[in-house]
Amino acid sequence: MPVSRRNFLGSAGALAALELATAPRPGAAAEAASPSIKVGRAKAFKVGVPVQFSYPDAAAPALAIKLSGPVPGGVGPAHDIVAYSQLCVHKGCPVNFNAQREVFMCPCHFTTYDAELSGQVIIGHATTNLPRIRLTYDAASDVVTAVGVDGLIYGRVNNKRMA
Ligand code: FES
Q1: Atom 1 (ligand 1): residue with closest C-alpha?
Q2: Which of 33, 81, 107, 139 has the highest CB neighbour number within 10 Å of its CB?
Q3: CB 103 within 8 A of CB 124
Q4: Which ligand 1 atom is at minimum distance from the Cα of 95?
């Protein structure tokens, strides 16, 4: 049976749509490999006092902070706990948290990141946000858990677990 141009194009389009619908989401493999790591109990956090942990492995220092108020993406009973990679995206120096301004500041070349706005660069050499550690909160146990990273941690080609 001869295949008309219209039928051929229609079949090709349907095939492409099927492939798109069943293809894994970009980054899904890396995300699937993301570990769940307990950061701490929400009631143990003090406003402005960083809690140090590592995510997704021991070579990736991170800071979790209870901010002075709720922020988009914040977890815990008051939606005010956030976490970020501690490695500046410019050249990898460990950033410090400035509790008065609620920003992360890099001591090497002074890039400053907004802790309330997804680690957005306020000023400095960095060209991307400070990678944000995705957190979940379980109200029953009061536990805050790190479950993923938004952004590329300095010095890596991906955020897959390295250890
Ligand atoms: S390493 Fe942080 S600004 Fe350069």
Answers
A1: 91
A2: 81
A3: no
A4: 2
Note the pLDDT tens digit of each residue in 72-131. Answer: 999 999 999 999 999 999 999 999 999 999 999 999 999 999 999 999 999 999 999 999
User: What does pTM read for this prediction?
Assistant: 0.80
Which of 93, 103, 129, 130 best tests ligand 1's pocket when mutated (most atoms within 8 Å of CB)? Answer: 93
* pLDDT of 84: 98
| pLDDT, greater one: 125 or 29 | 125
**Contact by Cβ (8 Å): 63, 96:** no
- CATH 2.60.120.260 applies to domain 35-150: no
Q: Give distance in angstroms: CA of 87 to centre of ligand 1.
A: 9
| Residue 107 CA: distances (Å) to CA of 1, 60, 121, 154 | 72, 18, 15, 16
What are the start-end ranges of the H helices in the chain? 5-22, 28-32
Cα separation, 21 vs 24, whole angstroms: 8
